[in-house]
Recover the amino acids of this structure.
């Protein structure tokens, strides 16, 4: 089937509009990050300017360095992701497979936690962390992020586990794998795609989180989102540095995305079964 | 080498209030090709899964060579299974799939490779070892599943409708090969199918399941010739046996106003169900008058639908019958081929 020229043109047009809408802010930030603060404020905005790496130098190694904050963010996000996956994978598998009493209610509860507006939890969480002395600590931050990421990850992973035919596991049981190895060798490799997706989402949420980071963090744990916020102050806003910091902060996430995407695509093609038609 | 005798003692399986199996007793001899035959929902697959250890029996015991395996884990039972969906591991290639059961017991790599080659050769897939299951045809997947089962030389093969996902032609071919393979390996095989023809052609003996019970056990020929109940008679044979409400007295069967001769002798007068296989119906110059509703030409035979007092009686005749649809004919039945079942209990009367 061949599309008409007009249809193709209008499709490309629509795609172009959306692409512009989505890429413009990123490109603008990229552009801004190479400007001097004076060029940033020039009106009308100028496209021709003398590019400078000064902002990056300041943001990475200067007085306003965000490197420690990047490390803080990385530690929190990594801990959150690893712990989430360690707990969510067995939980999701159990929810998908075993006929536990109250399974449906539990499933709904998990989803319901996602509907709660996070703002409502700030004060209870603050008081709670204060009580146990975990404010402004990595363990405190990770614990709080877990309360959001764990239900989300479980909910996401359950559907991936449910897609795997029970018979495949039963075959592994008969093939003398035992429950544990049936899970590790037969089930887990087939949900790789789902795990990659979940890892990206969980890491991304923790990495980009601001509200809890600013309230529950402090001097020990100051995540990069909070550090970036400090470029905006009462007297002035350092737009160029803020833009440079934003670009630097985006980089690891983009790398993670590219890395995980390769796995997702691979997972999708490997899982395909012709004929038998169970997937 | 172990021999593989299977005994089921009073197996009951309940799912909540529903009872799937009402006390199954079964003995399967070493080396036998044994079919569990029955309509869907009759409990044959549940029985197989209980033998495999994938489901627990609510009551009763399972023995394999006089060892009680009722509570043994599936992996410790020394059985291999081919699933209806084949259940190949999609992320592993054929070689890894076949090697999996041996890898799980930590067999040395050299031995595994040799065994994989050997098993693949037996089912003619040695050229496909590096493919993923997704790149195989249905028939090749089926062979791969078979190779994975035979590779570890188990005491018992369990096959759950292994041919049902193949097309008709391939099913016939594979059926024959499966039978030969089983003979050459000599391993006891339990084969679940709802296809009576499949069970008839492939099995040494079979058990017919109805509503969670075994109604009859015997060789396919015996069951075909001596169905234990009217329902078994109806299930086995294609087209199914004609079951005609009638009354019996003194060697004669009365169907409405008509009579048929039978060689079978039982005492007294009673209401019966007369069972006549379509192939035993004779069209001739005398007998019971009936109208031909439909003629189906099978090439080497004709299938006639005869109507008699609102009943349809099917006849399978040679192509020499020249009557047309709508015409009236007379039919009778070979007196030695009439089966009698009790009208109430539907149990076989003659022997």
């Amino acid at each position: 089937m061949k599309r008409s020229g007009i249809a193709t043109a209008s499709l490309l047009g629509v795609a172009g509009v959306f692409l512009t809408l989505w890429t413009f802010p990123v490109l603008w930030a990229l552009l801004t990050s190479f400007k001097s603060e004076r060029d940033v404020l020039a009106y009308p905005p100028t496209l021709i300017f003398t590019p400078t790496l000064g902002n990056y130098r300041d943001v990475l190694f200067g007085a306003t360095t965000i490197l420690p904050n990047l490390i803080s963010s990385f530690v929190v996000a990594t801990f959150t992701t690893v712990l989430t996956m360690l707990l969510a994978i067995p939980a999701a598998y159990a929810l998908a497979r075993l006929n536990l009493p109250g399974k449906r209610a539990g499933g709904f509860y998990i989803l319901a936690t996602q509907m709660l507006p996070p703002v409502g939890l700030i004060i209870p969480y603050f008081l709670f962390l204060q009580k146990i002395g975990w404010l402004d600590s990595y363990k405190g931050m990770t614990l709080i992020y877990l309360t959001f990421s764990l239900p989300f990850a479980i909910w996401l992973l359950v559907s991936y586990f449910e897609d795997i035919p029970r018979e495949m596991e039963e075959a592994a049981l008969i093939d003398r794998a035992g429950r544990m190895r049936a899970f590790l060798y037969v089930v887990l490799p087939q949900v790789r795609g789902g795990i990659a997706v979940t890892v990206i989402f969980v890491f991304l949420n923790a990495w980009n989180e601001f509200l809890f980071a600013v309230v529950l963090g402090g001097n020990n744990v100051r995540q990069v989102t909070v550090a970036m916020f400090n470029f905006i102050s009462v007297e002035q806003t350092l737009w160029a540095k803020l833009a440079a910091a934003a670009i630097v902060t985006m980089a690891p996430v983009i790398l993670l995305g590219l890395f995980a995407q390769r796995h997702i695509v691979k997972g999708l093609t490997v899982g395909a079964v012709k004929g038998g038609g169970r997937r | 080498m172990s021999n593989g005798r299977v005994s089921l003692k009073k197996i009951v399986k309940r799912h909540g209030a529903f009872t799937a199996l009402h006390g199954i007793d079964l003995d399967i001899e070493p080396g036998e090709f044994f079919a569990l035959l029955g309509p869907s929902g009759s409990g044959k697959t549940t029985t197989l899964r209980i033998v495999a250890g994938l489901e627990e029996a609510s009551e009763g015991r399972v023995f394999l060579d006089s060892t009680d395996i009722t509570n043994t884990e599936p992996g410790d039972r020394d059985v291999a299974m081919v699933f209806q969906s084949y259940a190949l591991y999609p992320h592993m290639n054929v070689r890894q799939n076949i090697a999996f059961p041996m890898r799980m017991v930590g067999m040395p790599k050299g031995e595994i490779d040799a065994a994989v080659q050997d098993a693949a050769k037996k089912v003619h897939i040695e050229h496909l070892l590096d493919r993923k299951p997704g790149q195989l045809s249905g028939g090749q997947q089926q062979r791969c599943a078979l190779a994975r089962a035979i590779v570890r030389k188990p005491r018992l093969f369990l096959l759950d409708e292994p041919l049902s996902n193949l097309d008709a032609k391939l099913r016939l071919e594979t059926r024959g090969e499966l039978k030969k393979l089983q003979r050459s390996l000599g391993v006891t095989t339990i084969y679940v199918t709802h296809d009576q023809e499949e069970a008839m052609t492939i099995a040494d003996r079979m058990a017919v399941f109805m509503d969670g019970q075994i109604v009859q056990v015997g060789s396919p020929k015996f069951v075909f010739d001596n169905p234990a109940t009217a329902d078994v008679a109806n299930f086995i044979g294609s087209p199914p046996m004609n079951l005609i409400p009638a009354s019996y007295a003194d060697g004669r069967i009365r169907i409405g106003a008509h009579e048929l001769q039978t060689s079978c002798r039982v005492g007294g007068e009673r209401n019966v169900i007369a069972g006549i296989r379509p192939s035993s119906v004779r069209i001739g110059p005398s007998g019971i008058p009936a109208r031909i509703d439909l003629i189906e030409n099978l090439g080497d035979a004709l299938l006639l639908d005869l109507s008699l007092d609102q009943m349809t009686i099917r006849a399978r005749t040679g192509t020499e019958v020249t009557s047309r649809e709508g015409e009236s004919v007379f039919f009778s039945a070979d007196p030695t081929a009439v089966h009698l079942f009790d009208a109430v209990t539907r149990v076989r009367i003659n022997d």
Q: What stands out?
A: The first strand of chain B starts at residue 6 and ends at 15.
